[in-house]
Amino acid sequence: MSTSPQVTVIINNRDLLEWPRRMVERLERLPGVAEIVIVDNGSSYRPLMAWYRTIPHRVLFLENLGHTAPWTSGVLDTIGTDLYVVSDPDLDLSALPDDTLPYLAGLLERHPSLGKVGLSLATEGIPTDSPYREHVAKYERLPQERATGPEGLIAMPVDTTFALHDRRVLREYRICGMRAPAPYVARHEPWHVVRPEGDFAYYLDHVEGRSSSYRDFTRHVKSDSVRGLYAAYAQEHGQKVSTKWDSYLEVYEDAFRPFKHEAVDLLEIGVQNGGSLEIWSRYFPRARTLTGCDINPRCGGLQYPDPRVQVIVGNANEQATFQRIAQRSPAFDIIVDDGSHRTNDVISSFLTYFPLLKPGGIFIAEDMHCAYWEEYGGGVLNERSCAAFFRRLMDTVNSDHFREADNGSLFQAWLPRAQTNAFLAANPILSVTAHDSMYLVRKASPARPRGLGREIIVGDVAIADDRVLRTRDAMLKKAA
Ligand SMILES: C[S@@+](CC[C@H](N)C(=O)[O-])C[C@H]1O[C@@H](n2cnc3c(N)ncnc32)[C@H](O)[C@@H]1O
Tens of pLDDT along 253-289? Predict the structure, then answer.
């Protein structure tokens, strides 16, 4: 048995971040790991891409080759060791003993015909409402208890769970081998998930065809992300219609996620057939009120079994409608304007309802491609369009730095100066972000106030320009 084997660990990943990140952290400290290589199957999860840029390990970016990628991608020709581990990215390796790799290597050396020797998987502690619970009880636990091979190995073949191979013996995908007994045990993370969130929700929402080992799982569990809920809704019969462009779903997800488990009050201007309001009611399980408003009298016929949801029929930009909305809920966390998309209506809705937004709340204007079209009162060079209005609003985020004008002068096309200044003083804008056809406006809050805050100067060596240190010294003197 080789006492200190050198092993390359190949993690096959797609769109998962937290689990592989923790695996890599454990592997970086595991004796015998010569190299860690991540084989990425066409991921699109942005935080994952950002993480890849920070790690000192090789990442092989591929199209989605699926679970056999470590063997079909050619990566085995590029590694510096004959011994290699292939692993899925969804294991908790934190309890692995430090001698795991020498132990597996010794077994493989003595029993090369096995092809691979893998870890076994912990089957305890799976939540009662895990969709995997039955599967684990039926297929994963019993063989582990019954069948044993040489040297205490468990006669249970390994697919793509963490297993050691020798490329001189096995360099193609095969389900074979045996599993090590305790304590060489990993925890299979998805078995413990009841409500997918974050990267796992993103993964489930972006599964392609049959290339996922979570296929069975996703059949039973839908992620509760905006995309997941739209996908689930699409499969139900007799549901109210909603229409959204694909790219909006991620923008909504990013904007809504911080509010997901809060007792939110939401207003949607423009509900049409009512589907989006229903989906928002599913997205926010603890929402207090979900109010829709639509000018179309037919929307009076929309029925929701959920008492938190109510539709008010009327023109959102009429005082009477505003009063009914404000009576139902005097302050909102989220306001979505998906109404007429006409420039005058959009600006009027913003000026009318933004004051009802709570500090820290978010206002979303949808379908803003209309802002560039003449028939909606817009136009690319039209300085009175709602796109121009939101651009000006974006300028107000920096109004502390204005020298030759004030906020009031920015909005002369729409509002008298004094009114603008009063509006912005009462409704401080934290940020305005533009996406394709969507504007997101956040109201500042005591938790995240507007402005630059204090100047932070760190370090004490300034070889290019030491004025900054003098500024800091002056600040410190003043504070003392
Ligand atoms: C694009 S649809 C809404 C779609 C819906 N939010 C969804 O995602 O399925 C626009 C709706 O806005 C309504 N609308 C237009 N002008 C309005 C106004 N001034 N006040 C309230 N609703 C208005 C229309 O009647 C129409 O039903």
Answer: 999 999 999 999 999 999 999 999 999 999 999 999 9
- Strands, sheet with 83-87, edge to edge from the N-terminal-most edge strand: 58-62, 33-41, 7-13, 83-87, 163-166, 116-118, 178-179
Nearest alpha carbon to residue 389 among 430, 429, 346: 346
What DSSP string runs through 273-307? TSHHHHHHHHH-TT-SEEEEEES-GGGGG---SST
Contact 196, 204 (CB under 8 A): yes
- Residue with CA nearest ligand 1 atom 15: 340
CA of 378 to the centre of ligand 1 (A): 18
Residue to mutate (ligand 1; options 294, 315, 325, 352; most atoms within 8 A of CB): 294
Residue-level pLDDT at 383? 95
Q: What is the pTM of this model?
A: 0.71
85-128 pLDDT per residue, tens: 999 999 999 999 999 999 999 999 999 999 999 999 998 888 88
Residue with tokens 């630059």: 452
What is the C-alpha to C-alpha distance for residues 245 and 41, in angstroms, rounded to an integer?
26
Rounded Cα distance between 164 and 176, Å, is 12
Q: How far is the CA of 260 from the centre of ligand 1 (A)?
A: 24
Nearest residue (CA) to ligand 1, atom 6: 271
The Cα–Cα gap between 436 and 363 comes to 16
**Cα-based angle 394, 398, 400 (whole degrees, multiple of 5):** 145
Domains of the chain with CATH codes: 7-192 (3.90.550.10), 226-443 (3.40.50.150)
Express each pLDDT in 446-462 by its tens digit.
888 888 998 899 999 99
Which residues, judged by CB distance below 6 Å to any ligand atom, belong to the binding site of ligand 1?
242-244, 268-272, 275-276, 293-296, 315-317, 338-340, 345
Return the ∠ at Cα 279 (arms to 278 and 285), rounded to 5°. 95
Average pLDDT (175-184) is: 94
Neighbouring-strand partners of residue 170? none
